[in-house]
Amino acid sequence: MEIIASLVPMLIVFVVFYLVLLLPEKKRKKQYMHMLTRGGIIGKIISLDGDNMVLESGPDRARLKMTKNAIANKIYKED
Questions:
Q1: Residue 13 CA: distances (Å) to CA of 45, 48, 57
Q2: Nearest by Cα to 49 from 36, 32, 68, 29
Q3: What is the per-residue pLDDT for 58?
Q4: Rounded CA gap, 32 and 34, in Å?
């Protein structure tokens, strides 16, 4: 009986900790990941410099500078 009585306050502290700190952080992380959806720009990588790259896209060959994290996948052109 004493063991159960000593575990109840620890259990209450854990539940409060989860509800106050972990649950809101999980929700914020989910919203943040939802905002990070990648565009849909298809182009040719012109140059790489550290964490940045220059991408050439469109009929006017517009050049866009962005981070490497913007790359969702690599498509190889068939010869």
A1: 52, 50, 55
A2: 68
A3: 87
A4: 5
What pLDDT score does 37 carry? 61
Residue written as token pair 């990070």: 36
Secondary structure in 3-state letters for the chain: CHHHHHHHHHHHHHHHHHHHHHHHHHHHHHHHHHHCCCCCCCCEEEEEECCEEEEEECCCCEEEEEEHHHCCCCCCCCC
| Tokens 């575990």 sit on residue | 7
The reported pTM is: 0.47
β-partners of residue 53 are 48, 66
Structure tokens given for 79: 């010869």
